[in-house]
Every structure is written in structure tokens, then in C-alpha cells.
């Protein structure tokens, strides 16, 4: 038995050979020669026939050896490992050559038939796989459907209005006016019977047994706050799912802080930026403390902040939210939630501390720093390497009591406003969750005097590498 021995050859002596060791010199080092206790006088000299009814042996023959054996020849190698085919029962070499050609033709024909048969089998197997996947997809979606229907039944009258799919099509005028698109699906502008404009988010697929759909309905239906987007209703009809929200004319905050602009101009002035930051903090404070059930959002980022006609911010997209009773400070989670670039470090590395509402505080701080800088917190395209990780660059300037050199500051009041937003954000992104302020404290610091704010410790996490930057938009759920 050759354990782990690949590519070895079987050598045997024919009658008439002198009694000598005819092993070739290329026997692999991890193989050993086993002599078979078989009396050659009692058996046919053909080793293949000997082994076939005494031992179970598998081997791979070279093409030449296969033709040789099928033609009645015997495969041999000399001491230099050169292959020879002998035909002891063949009258002459010409007959041997003819026999070899005959079997070559037979082999070619057989190979062709085998190939056709294999293609037929692969096609049938492919159809079976596709059918299996369809069945599994159907079963999975059926389970999701049952989970959501059970939830809606238990939720009773607390759930928002339920629309059928034909109503959604009418509201959106046949999905005519598309506002945006993401991994979740597409958003369309719509209009209700009473003339109110709405935004309709049509979901492309469900994740986690319909958990995101349930989270959205359960979370927003429990809220009523000026800084939380209102869920007007939803559609859940077979595999067609959609949410109907109040319409936000100015879209998401994201488009106002990253777009190209002259170095001295901001799309949003500092007073507006400050009010947006304060409004988001108040919305989070309501989620963490003002609801009957504490809600942790777990995906605070500019894309999920919507702006009305007066640039009043509203927190949206509660697909990753977690609901828990207020007395619980630590949230139980099986996997990471959030978006890289905003996700709190303890969500990824649990030995840094428990996951709690402080994770939202971290995401908020990272987002406000991007509002302040008008750029991503990590940007490898800047001229100086010291500016690649924006929070560290800002911290250094505050530590040295230097000008922040931020764009669009017109007077001393705006300078103090910008400095306050930076200081509060740096407190929010502390690596240790216990070192971060609660969101209520954040509101207090933003509304208070800049002179009462102390310089926070430098966050001790290293700056992200270029490899991590490439993954900054990957969502973990």
C-alpha cells in the first residue's frame, strides 16, 4: 500500500530475464518497493492479470502504454526510464503498428462518444442545480414571508398603513421619477391622494429572514420626532416589498459634503452645518432615551441623513437597528452591523468593550468630522501624508492650538462653531466606549460654550491602511 505516494510506477520482470533488480532509478523518495509473494510459474506472466484477481490496484496509464496494452503489447521501461512496447505474440512490427492504429481509432471514437455523453450529463446536472436553487430560493422567501406576516399580525394596529402593489405603482406613476438607487433597491418620488409628496423605496431583496424589513417597521412606527423620518406606510405583497416615507426635497446629506467645489466655497454654510449636526444628535438622543423602547441605529452615516426643504435633518434607514429595553446597556449581537468608516471598533473587536448605544455615538462623531472637512475621513489623494487620516490631522492642530484651516469660515463666530464641532467629534470617536460621552452629553456640549470643552485624549487606534481604504464602503450585516 502506497500511502501518499503519487505518480509511482509498477515494474515487473518478464520470463526469460536474468535475476536482477530491474527497478528504474526514478522511484520517488516517499515510495517503497514491495515485493509481491507470487509464484510467477503459477500465474500468467501478465502482471495486470495477476493483480486483477488477487489485489485491488488503481493506476493511471500513459496514452502510449494504454495503446500498447490494448494492442496486446507489454509496457516496459529500461534502466534509463525510456518507454518500450513489446509485442511477444505479434509476427512482425508492421502488424503491431496496424494493431496500434486500430486501437487508436477505437480510442478516438470512444473518446468522442464519451465527450458527447458527458456534455449531456452536465446539461442535465445543470438543469437540476438550477431547479434546486430555485426551490431553495422559493423556500427561503417563503420562510421570510411567514416571518414578516407573523410580525405584522402580532404588531396589529401599531403598524403603519399597508399598501398593495397596485397602489404603490399608482402613487409613483408607474415608477416614473427615480430619485436614487442603492444595494437595497431603488427610490422613487410619489404622490398620495391628498397631494402629499412621498419617497417610495422599492426593496430588491430581503436579508436575514426579513429582519431588516421588520426592523424598519418596528423601529420607525415607535418614533415621532422632528429629526426622525416618518414612515407613511409599506407594501408587502408576495415578493414585492416597499416603504413609503415622507418626502425630503433636499435628499441625503451625502451629496452636500463630498461634491467638487472651489477651495473657498462650501455648499452648506457653517450655521447650517452646525444645526444639522445638532439636529442629528437630538434625533439620536430621542432614539436612545425618548422612546418607550431604546433603539440603537447602528448605521449612522451621511447617506442615511435626509434633509427637508429647510435643511432640517432626519435620521432614516433603520434596517440594522436593534431594539432593547432601557435598563439594558449592552446590546447582544451575533455579527457586525454598520458601514466601514463609521462602524465602532467594539463592534468588530469585542474585547474593546460591549456593544451599546455608544456605538451610535462613534458613528455620529465620524460623520460630523466629514461634514467639517467636506471630505472622507480617509483620503489617500491629499497632497500631504499627514492629512490622509483627517481626525488625526485635526487633533494635532487642536493639540498645538493652531488654526484649523477649514473651508468657508467667514468670521469669529463660525470659527468657534467649527472648533466646537471638531472637539465634540473627537470625544465621540474615542476607542474605548466608556470614554465617549452619551448622546445627551453631546447635545449639551454642542449647545454649551466652547471654553468649557476640554481637549479629548488622542484615540489610540492606528490610522487605516490603504488596503482598508479600498473597503470603506463595504457593508457588514
UniProtKB/TrEMBL annotation:
GO molecular function, one term: protein serine/threonine kinase activity
Main location per the UniProt record: membrane
Keywords attached to this entry: ATP-binding, Glycoprotein, Kinase, Membrane, Nucleotide-binding, Serine/threonine-protein kinase, Signal, Transferase, Transmembrane, Transmembrane helix
Alphabetical list of CDD domains matching this protein: STKc_IRAK
Domain of life: Eukaryota
InterPro entries in the record: Kinase-like_dom_sf, LRK10/LRL21-25-like, Prot_kinase_dom, Protein_kinase_ATP_BS, Ser-Thr/Tyr_kinase_cat_dom, Ser/Thr_kinase_AS
Residue ranges occupied by any Protein kinase domain in the UniProt entry: 173-461
Transmembrane stretches, start-end: 103-125
Pfam families recorded: PK_Tyr_Ser-Thr
Membrane topology note: Single-pass type I membrane protein
Designated name of the protein: Receptor-like protein kinase
Family listed: Belongs to the protein kinase superfamily.
Family annotation (PANTHER family): RUST RESISTANCE KINASE LR10-RELATED
Binding site for ATP: 201
Subcellular location field: Membrane
UniProt keyword Signal, yes or no: yes
Any single Gene Ontology cellular-component annotation: membrane
Amino acid at each position: 500500500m502506497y500511502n501518499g505516494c503519487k505518480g509511482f510506477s509498477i515494474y515487473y520482470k518478464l520470463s526469460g530475464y536474468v535475476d536482477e533488480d530491474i527497478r528504474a532509478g526514478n522511484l520517488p523518495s516517499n515510495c517503497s518497493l514491495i515485493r509481491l509473494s507470487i509464484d510467477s510459474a503459477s500465474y500468467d506472466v501478465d502482471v495486470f492479470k495477476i493483480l486483477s484477481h488477487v489485489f485491488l490496484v488503481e493506476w493511471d496509464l500513459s496514452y502510449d502504454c494504454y495503446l500498447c496494452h490494448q494492442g496486446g503489447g507489454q509496457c516496459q521501461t529500461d534502466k534509463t526510464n525510456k518507454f518500450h512496447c513489446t509485442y511477444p505474440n505479434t509476427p512482425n512490427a508492421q502488424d503491431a503498428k496496424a494493431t496500434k492504429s486500430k486501437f487508436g481509432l477505437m480510442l478516438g471514437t470512444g473518446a468522442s462518444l464519451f465527450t458527447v455523453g458527458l456534455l449531456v450529463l452536465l446539461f442535465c446536472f445543470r438543469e437540476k442545480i438550477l431547479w434546486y436553487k430555485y426551490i431553495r430560493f422559493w423556500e427561503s422567501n417563503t420562510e421570510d414571508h411567514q416571518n414578516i406576516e407573523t410580525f405584522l399580525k402580532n404588531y396589529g394596529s401599531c403598524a403603519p398603513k399597508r399598501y398593495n402593489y397596485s397602489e404603490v405603482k399608482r402613487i409613483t406613476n408607474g415608477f416614473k421619477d427615480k430619485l436614487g438607487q442603492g444595494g437595497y433597491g431603488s427610490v422613487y418620488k410619489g404622490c398620495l391622494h391628498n397631494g402629499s409628496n412621498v419617497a417610495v423605496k422599492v426593496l430588491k431583496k430581503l436579508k436575514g429572514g426579513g429582519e431588516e424589513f421588520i426592523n424598519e417597521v418596528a423601529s420607525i412606527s415607535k418614533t415621532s420626532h422632528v429629526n426622525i423620518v416618518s414612515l407613511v406606510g409599506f407594501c408587502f405583497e408576495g415578493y414585492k416589498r416597499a416603504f413609503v416615507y415622507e418626502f425630503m426635497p433636499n435628499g441625503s446629506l451625502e451629496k452636500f459634503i463630498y461634491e467638487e467645489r472651489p477651495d473657498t466655497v462650501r455648499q452648506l454654510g457653517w450655521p447650517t452645518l452646525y444645526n444639522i449636526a445638532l439636529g442629528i444628535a437630538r434625533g439620536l438622543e430621542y432614539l436612545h432615551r425618548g422612546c418607550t423602547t431604546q433603539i440603537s441605529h447602528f448605521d449612522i452615516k451621511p447617506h442615511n441623513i435626509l434633509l427637508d426643504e429647510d435643511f432640517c435633518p432626519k435620521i432614516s434607514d433603520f434596517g440594522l437597528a436593534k431594539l432593547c429595553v432601557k435598563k439594558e446597556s449592552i446590546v447582544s449581537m451575533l455579527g457586525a452591523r454598520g458601514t466601514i468608516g463609521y462602524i465602532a471598533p467594539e463592534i468588530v473587536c469585542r474585547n474593546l468593550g460591549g456593544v451599546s448605544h455608544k456605538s451610535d455615538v462613534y458613528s455620529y462623531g465620524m460623520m460630523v468630522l466629514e461634514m467639517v472637512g467636506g471630505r472622507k475621513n480617509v483620503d489617500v489623494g491629499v497632497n500631504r501624508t499627514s492629512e490622509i487620516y483627517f481626525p488625526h490631522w485635526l487633533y494635532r492642530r487642536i493639540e498645538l492650538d493652531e488654526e484649523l484651516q477649514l473651508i468657508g469660515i467667514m468670521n469669529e463666530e463660525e470659527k468657534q462653531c467649527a472648533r466646537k464641532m471638531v472637539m465634540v467629534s473627537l470625544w465621540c470617536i474615542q476607542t474605548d466606549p466608556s470614554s465617549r460621552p452619551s448622546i445627551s452629553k453631546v447635545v449639551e456640549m454642542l449647545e454649551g460654550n466652547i471654553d468649557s470643552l476640554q481637549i479629548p485624549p488622542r484615540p489610540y487606534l492606528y490610522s487605516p491602511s490603504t488596503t482598508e481604504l479600498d473597503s470603506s464602503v463595504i457593508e457588514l450585516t
